[in-house]
Each structure stands twice: as C-alpha cells, then as structure tokens.
Write a structure and sequence with these properties.
The longest helix is centred in the first third of the chain and has 43 residues, at 26-68. It is elongated, with a radius of gyration of 32 Å. Helix 1 (26-68) packs antiparallel against helix 4 (265-290). It is an alpha/beta fold. It contains four helices and ten strands; from the N terminus they run E-E-H-E-H-E-E-E-E-H-E-E-H-E. Strand 3, helix 2 and strand 4 form a beta-alpha-beta unit. Helix content is 27%, strand content 25%. The strands form two sheets. It has a five-stranded mixed β-barrel with strand order 4-5-6-8-7. The chain has a three-stranded antiparallel beta sheet with strand order 1-2-10, with no helix packed on it.
Length: 306
C-alpha cells in the first residue's frame, strides 16, 4: 500500500472496476513547486525575448529612418547633443596627436568576415583632437578603424568637413583593466581627452542612447563627458553592392553599419522559441513524473442468483 493513495471501486457489468485516487504527498507538492517554478521561469523568459524582438524591430526602424535623413550643418556641440541618430556636418581642423584604442576587432560590417576557419582581423580605433571652426570648441573624433600593423594615414591639417554622429564613449567593463598612456583598451573619454589635450567642454548628459551601445544604453558614470564624435563614410559599398576595399586606413564606419545590432531580431526570435519549447517540455515531463496517469484495475465479482 502506497501512502497518500487509496482505491475507489464501482460496478460495471460483471466486473468491479477500481481506480487509484491520488492524494498528493508532501514530496510531490515540493517537487511540483520546484519544477513548476522552472516551467514558469522558462515561460517568462520566452515572453521577455518576444518583447525584446518587437522592441528591436521598432528600434531598427526608427534608427533607419533617422540615419536616412540628409545630414545638416551643425557645430560640434550641436551634433553631440542630438537625441536621435541624425547625422550632422561639422567643419574644423584636426590638431595635435592621435591615440589608438585596442586591440579590438573591426566594427560589425566594416570589413568582410574571415572565410572558413580563419580568424578575423584585429586592429585599433584611431581617435584624434578636432577643433570646430564655427565655435572653436575642441572635441574628440573617432576617425575609424585600422588593422594592426597598418600605420594610419595622418589626419589632414587643413580645414575639412566631416559627416558625424554624436556618441558618449564606452563604459568600463567589470573585468576591464584600467587604461594607461601606453595601452588604451576602451574609450574612456575623460582619460583620452586629457592625453589629446582637449580641455573638455561637456556635452549634455541627458541625450538618448549612443551609437556604440547598439541599442543598450550605457550612460557615463561621471555625468557629462568631453564632446565625442564618430566620423562616417558616405558608403561602404560600390555601385554593384560589393564591399569597397579601403585605399588607406583608418576606415570610418558607414551610416548603414549603425543600423546593425550585436543581437539582431532573428536571434531574439530563436531565443524565445527555445525558452517556450523548454517550458512546454518541462510542463509535460513534470506532469508525467510527479502525477502519472493511473490505469483502471478490474476484478471479477461472482454473480449471485436469486
């Protein structure tokens, strides 16, 4: 006799039919709570990834529309303070020295991916001081990415026009080492501005998300930062739609590359499907293991004559 279970009998024709009636034991209640929590948790993760999918689709649409607008002339401060991914045209001069940030892989879509089992190239972001002609404001400009071992072309000393997007640099990772003048691993704007001699007129700290976040906001822990602009190329494809091979380095990003995200919508959809499938499978297995279906038992009953 199993604890927590009893038989219920009734007559059917010449047979007495019985079914074991379950009364949940404490062990079954505890198991149901644990596995039920796992089922609910995986289902919740599926819902979350579904929400992320639609959020990312809308975000990509908004970003594509903003990047598709024609760039307008602006000062460095105005370009940095725009709350959307609207391009600006600034005019000024590069001054002083440059710094290399890295080593790091190229931005997504900047160079063709490695074939087969080959590894992708490694290089550096080239950052330089830039003085805006309109206001005389000094800022930091990301000229682009250059592969390791390839000396970047010197910045022009005459006045130039740049198509730019405002940015707020990068936030230090949990395990990222501190930057040093000999090696700069992440774009720490106050530190880099000090090396470049940029006095650091601060841009507003309440701007929208910045391009380097790829959809994940990372406001600076230090409030306002020196003005930071990312130079853009007009296009990274030729008339036939093939990737252009840069004639010189560094190679700036194109506006189309800012439409990409580290995690694309199809990835969110795959995650959501996986979590929902795990939730359904977990619910089925929990039901089978903890609450198995009992088969009816039968026994013959001698017929009585009257």
């Amino acid at each position: 006799k199993r604890s927590g279970r009893r038989m219920r009998w009734w007559r059917r024709g010449g047979l007495e039919v019985g079914r074991r009636v379950s009364t949940a034991t404490p062990k079954e209640v505890a198991g149901g709570a644990v596995f039920g929590g796992l089922v609910a948790g995986t289902f919740g993760l599926g819902v979350w990834q579904t929400q992320r999918y639609f959020w990312k689709v809308d975000l990509m649409k908004e970003r594509r529309e903003a990047l598709g607008r024609a760039p307008s002339a602006a000062s460095a401060a105005e370009a940095a303070s725009k709350t959307t991914f609207e391009r600006s045209i600034v005019r000024g001069k590069f001054v002083g020295k440059e710094v290399l940030v890295g080593p790091r892989p190229p931005p997504a879509g900047l160079v063709p991916p490695a074939q087969g089992l080959g590894t992708g190239p490694i290089g550096y972001e080239v950052l330089a001081a830039f003085v805006d002609d309109e206001s005389g404001t000094a800022c930091v400009v990301n000229r682009g990415w250059t592969p390791r071992g390839q000396a970047p072309l010197e910045a022009p000393t005459s006045s130039v026009e740049l198509v730019v997007l405002g940015d707020r640099g990068e936030r230090r990772g949990t395990f990222s080492p501190a930057n040093t003048p000999q090696q700069i691993l992440w774009i720490e704007l106050p530190f880099i501005a000090g090396l470049l001699g940029v006095r650091g007129e601060e841009c507003p700290s309440d701007r929208g998300e910045n391009p380097s976040d790829r959809g994940e906001k990372s406001p600076s822990d230090r409030g306002g930062n020196p003005i930071y602009l990312v130079a853009l190329a007009e296009s990274d494809e030729d008339e036939q739609g093939n990737k252009k091979k840069p004639s010189s380095w560094p190679k700036p990003r194109s506006a189309a590359q800012f439409e990409r995200f580290n995690v694309e919508p199809p990835t969110h959809a795959a995650y959501a499907f996986t979590w929902f499938a795990l939730s359904v499978a977990g619910a089925f297995m929990t039901r089978r293991l903890l609450f198995p279906k009992q088969q009816p038992r039968r026994r013959n009953i001698p017929r009585t004559t009257t």
